[in-house]
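Example record

One chain of 172 residues, shown exactly as stored in the release files.
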Amino acid sequence: MKRTKNILLLSFLICLTSCKKDSNDIKLDKEKSFYVNINFPDTVYRNSSYNGKINYRNALDTITVSLNDPKKYRFIDFAFLRTDNISYNEDYLKKIVTDTFTSENNRIIPLYNIFFNKLGVNYIDGIITDQVSIEGGGTDKYGKPMTRIITNEFRVNHKVIVINRPEPKSNL
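Predicted structure tokens for this chain:
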């Protein structure tokens, strides 16, 4: 009888210690959960308009790739400004953004009619906001629909050199 109790106690302790949480858990690194490639010229002429695009992938693509799904509504925005200095934090950037582009699909954010009027080194500096709203189908105690919102934000910038357009040579 005493031996049976000892075996049960030993079995219980073995089970208890074998169920501990492993310290080698794999965590999703924020730096590796997205891909951004800004397709925009590195050198531009002052006061000339340029178009480009941002090629983009994010971990939220595993939830939905559609931007029109009513059960999993998703939007991707790029709020940005043109500047010659990027030595400020994301909170300040959110306060000073001057323009926003919205994605056409889950892979491309278009950039239209971007121009620079200051010569030298400039930047396109902004924040990509990728948000999915998932309808749960239930309601809370007040009768409002329960929606889960997942938001990822990433700061991205692109260095642009602004030069004067060369004067046309005369044929005299």
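Notes: The chain has a mean pLDDT of 80.
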